Amino acid sequence: MPQGQVSVVPDDKLTTRQRRNRPLLMVHTGEGKGKSTAAFGLALRGWNQGFRIGVFQFVKSAKWRIGEQTVLERLGALHAETGEGGPVEWHKMGSGWSWSRKAGTEVDHAREAAAGWAEIKRRLGAESHDLYVLDEFTYPITWGWVDIGDVVDTLVNRPGHQHVVITGRNADPRLLEIADLVTEMTNVKHPMDAGQKGQRGIEW
């Protein structure tokens, strides 16, 4: 697509403007690094355009505060103070890493994941945000904690103009089928392959 030119113009009876401004469902999947990072970069661009940003982070521990959360929440505060950009909400929807030692059973985590998805469904119905970042949402789907059929039906039929980006490995084929944009991150080379642990400012 050189210089932003599309390769195909569909016969969908839409104007160029209508087609360009359709709400998108995006999926970042694959084994490589960068899925969440790319989604948070998208959130930064959306904020700059005045989008109402909603980040819903599944699986990660509520005690783990990543750098992007600090930045986006500060941008949300800036919006509240000056009107610049858009409002930002950040929610952690799960109990933490399912394979880590912590309080709670798999049943507890499944229940919390289902409750998180129910809240997202409510917000989609209310058109609460312009961009939803469902970070690591593929995992509760894979584990059967959230019903993929319900996810597909909800996303396909979401009202208004709401963009959604989902991240995580092993995205369900039914999710990929309905997505407008799918990016698969491939791990070609990583410092951890040579025994180097994550660095401040790079991994978090």
Note down, in words, how this protein is organized.
The chain has helices at 16-20, 35-48, 67-82, 106-126, 138-142, 148-156, 173-178; strands spanning 25-30, 53-57, 88-92, 131-135, 163-167, 181-185. Helix 2 packs parallel to helix 3 (67-82). The protein is globular. It starts with 15 loop residues before the first helix and ends in a 19-residue tail after the last strand. It has a six-stranded parallel sheet with strand order 3-2-4-5-1-6. It is of the alpha/beta class. GO terms for molecular function: corrinoid adenosyltransferase activity. Keywords: Transferase. It is an enzyme of class 2 (transferase). This is Cob(I)yrinic acid a,c-diamide adenosyltransferase.
Listing every helix as H and every strand as E from the N terminus to the C terminus, the arrangement reads HEHEHEHEHHEHE
What is the general shape? globular
Biggest pleated sheet: 6 strands, parallel
Class by helix and strand content?
alpha/beta
How many DSSP helices? 7
Please tell me the overall pLDDT. Answer: 87
Uncertain runs? 96-101
Radius of gyration over C-alpha positions, nearest whole angstrom: 18 Å
Strand content: 15-25%
Distance between the termini: 33 Å
The count of DSSP E runs of length 2 or more, i.e. the number of strands, is: 6
Fraction of residues in helix: 25-40%
Strand order of the largest sheet: 3-2-4-5-1-6
